[in-house]
Write a structure and sequence with these properties.
Blueprint (H helix, E strand, L loop, with lengths): L25 H22 L5 E8 L10 E4 L2 E12 L2 E9 L9 E5 L8 E5 L13 E2 L4 E2 L4 H15 L9 H13 L3 H20 L1 H20 L1 H20 L1 H24 L1 H20 L1 H21 E2 L4 E2 L11 H9 L5 H14 L17 H6 L26 H4 L5
Parallel strand pairs: 1-7, 2-6, 5-8
Antiparallel strand pairs: 1-4, 2-3, 3-4, 5-6, 9-10
C-alpha cells in the first residue's frame, strides 16, 4: 500500500536560517536538555520542604503479634511504623517512628490493640495532642504508661487453673465444694422471689444513693470543713472539753440535790396540773379578764407612760410640802381677796357699769345683817370712797385671828385639805 505523500514544509527565508556549527548535531541538543532537567530536579529535591520523623520507644510486658512494619496509630489513623521489637528481660522494647507533623503529647500512653483474634496488632498512642508540651525525639514511654491485651491462651490458662483449684485435687478434695453447693442449693431453694425482691430493692437503694450523690458529697464536704475548723481551733476545743469536764464533775457532786429538785419539780408539776384541771373554768375567766385588762393598758399606754414619768416628781413635791410638826401639807394661796369676802364681791361688781355704786350699797346692806357678827371679817367699816377701798391691799391678818371687838368663829367639820387626809391637826 502506497504511503500518502505529505506536503513539503515551506521554505525558510534566508535571514531566519541559523548556520550550522560544525561538530554539533541533534545528539548534543538532547544531552543539554537532559542535564537541564536533572539540574531542575536536584534543585527541587534540595529545596523542597521535607518531613522528618520522631523516634520513640515504648516498654511493654508482652508484644505478641507485633512486628517491624506494624502500624502506629492515633485515634485509629496511621501516623507511623514499628521499626524494632527487642526483648529486654522482663519487658519488650518496641521502637517506632511517628511523622513529626503529627504532635504527640509529652505524657502520652501506648497500648497494643488487637482488632481481632487472628489479625496483626498495632500500637495505639493516646490521648490525642491538643495543647501543652510535645514529646521529645528519642523519648521512652515506661511500663506504667503502657498496656497490652489479655491473650486467649492466658484466659484459657486462668480458667484451667480455676478448675484445677476447685476440682477433686483442690478445694473439692474432701467434698467441701460439693457440700457448699448442696447447702447453698438447699438454702436458696424456693427463695427465688425473695432474691429477686432483694436484688430489686438493692437496685432502688443504689439509684436513690446515686440520685442523692450531690447531697451526700455536700455533706461529706461540710463535715470536712467542720473538722478543719475544729483543727484550726484545737485549743478552744480543748478548753471547752475541760470546762465540760468541770461542769460534769460539779453536777456529779450535786446529783443528790439535783435528784431532789427534780422530784420536787415533778410533785409541783403534778399539783399544778391538778389545780389547773380543778379550776379550769375560773382560770379561763381570769385569763379572759386579764386579757381585757392588758388590752386596756395597751390602749392607755401613752397616759400610763406619762403618769410613770411625772409620778416621781409629784411624789417628791408632795414629800417636800408635808409639814411633819403640824401633820399638814403647806400650800400657798394666791387669791388674797378670799380673806375678805367683801373685796371679792366688790371685785365682781366692779365690772358692771354702776359697779362702784352697787358696791357701796352692798356694803351698806351688809352692815345691817346680823350674820356679819359671826363671820371672820377683820372690820365692817369702809372708807368714804369705795374705789380707794377697792384698791387698798387686803388685810394680812389670819382669818382665825381677828382684832378685839370682832367675833371669832371656828368652822368645824371635815378638813378638805391634804393635811386633813394625812391626819394633821389644824
Amino acid at each position: 500500500m502506497a504511503r500518502p505523500t505529505l506536503p513539503s514544509p515551506p521554505a525558510v527565508p534566508a535571514v531566519l536560517r541559523r548556520p550550522r556549527v560544525p561538530g554539533l548535531g541533534s545528539t548534543a541538543t538532547r544531552v543539554v536538555a537532559v542535564l537541564v532537567v536533572v539540574a531542575l530536579a536536584a534543585g527541587v529535591y534540595a529545596f523542597w520542604p521535607k518531613h522528618g520523623e520522631t523516634t520513640l520507644t515504648a516498654q511493654f510486658t508482652r508484644a505478641v503479634g507485633l512486628y517491624p512494619g506494624s502500624d502506629v496509630r492515633i485515634l485509629g489513623v496511621a501516623v507511623g511504623k514499628v521499626t524494632m521489637v527487642v526483648p529486654a528481660g522482663d519487658r519488650v522494647d518496641v521502637t517506632f517512628q511517628v511523622d513529626d507533623t503529627v504532635p504527640v503529647p509529652a505524657s502520652a500512653e501506648a497500648a497494643i490493640v488487637a482488632p481481632s483474634l487472628v489479625s496483626d496488632r498495632y500500637v495505639q498512642l493516646l490521648p490525642a495532642w491538643t495543647t501543652g508540651p510535645r514529646i521529645a525525639d528519642g523519648a521512652t514511654i515506661p511500663l506504667d504508661r503502657t498496656a497490652v491485651p489479655v491473650e486467649l491462651d492466658r484466659i484459657s490458662q486462668s480458667l484451667d487453673d480455676l478448675l484445677v483449684a476447685l476440682g477433686p485435687n483442690g478445694a473439692n478434695k474432701e467434698g467441701s465444694l460439693s457440700r457448699l453447693l448442696q447447702t447453698s442449693a438447699a438454702n436458696l431453694g424456693g427463695q427465688g422471689q425473695n432474691l429477686h425482691d432483694t436484688t430489686h430493692d438493692l437496685s432502688l437503694a443504689l439509684q436513690t444513693l446515686s440520685g442523692g450523690r450531690d447531697d451526700f458529697f455536700a455533706t461529706v464536704k461540710n463535715l470536712q470543713s467542720f473538722t478543719t475548723l475544729l483543727a484550726r481551733n484545737d485549743q478552744q476545743v480543748r478548753d471547752l472539753n475541760a470546762n465540760l469536764a468541770t461542769v460534769s464533775q460539779q453536777l456529779e457532786g450535786e446529783r443528790g440535790d439535783l435528784g431532789s429538785a427534780l422530784a420536787n419539780l415533778a410533785t409541783a408539776l403534778t399539783e399544778i396540773s391538778t389545780f389547773v384541771q380543778d379550776n379550769r373554768t375560773v382560770l379561763k375567766s381570769d385569763l379572759a379578764q386579764l386579757t381585757r385588762t392588758t388590752s386596756t393598758i395597751v390602749k392607755n399606754r401613752d397616759a400610763l407612760a406619762e403618769t410613770l414619768e411625772d409620778a416621781p416628781v409629784a411624789l417628791s413635791n408632795l414629800q417636800n410640802a408635808y409639814h411633819p410638826e403640824t401633820g399638814t401639807l403647806d400650800t400657798r394661796n394666791n387669791t388674797p381677796q378670799l380673806t375678805d369676802p367683801r373685796l371679792l364681791l366688790c371685785g365682781v361688781l366692779s365690772h358692771l357699769p354702776q359697779g362702784g355704786a352697787a358696791c357701796t350699797q352692798l356694803f351698806d346692806l351688809l352692815k345691817t345683817l346680823p350674820i356679819l357678827g359671826q363671820l371672820p371679817i377683820p372690820g365692817i367699816g369702809l372708807p368714804s370712797a369705795v374705789p380707794s377701798a377697792l384698791t387698798t391691799a387686803a388685810p394680812t391678818t389670819s382669818p382665825t385671828a381677828v382684832p378685839a371687838g370682832d367675833a371669832l368663829v371656828h368652822v368645824r367639820g371635815a378638813d378638805p385639805t391634804l393635811g386633813g387626809l394625812l391626819g394633821g391637826d389644824r
